[in-house]
Amino acid sequence: MGHRIELGEIEVNVNMIEEISTSCAVYDKEKGKIVLYYIGELEPDKLVRILKDKLPRYMIPNKTEKLEQMPLTANGKIDRVFLMKKAQETRLGYNGYKTSFKSVAMLGSNIFLRSMDKAESLQHSLDSRGYNGEIPMYKPQNRSDD
Prior knowledge:
Blueprint lengths: L6 H9 L4 E9 L4 E8 L3 H11 L8 E4 L13 H10 L1 H4 L1 H33 L18
Parallel strand pairs: 2-3
Antiparallel strand pairs: 1-2
């Protein structure tokens, strides 16, 4: 059974904290993650600890980012479209180093395993043809100019 995530409820609870002046929660549909942007004095980890006492577990933001200034539209409202794009652009940054390192490590291991498979296949092929492991050397023939 899925849970209904109320971004407005997250924002209300964050904005009720004295050290927070404003907040905006967005949902990254592609990754299924809640991202919270806020302006305030609290550090992100402390804010999350406070929210764990106020919100259900499934509504705790997966990423919390402190901003110096909240982006606003021409009408003076919080620019949610901009923040959603920011969340999508910084998706790698959320777990960036680990994700990038993990991706590179997996790619490297796949290349290594494939090259090992090819090497074993080549070895099997050479063995079946009677190759004894010696490297053939080119021996120039003496030409006698008669």
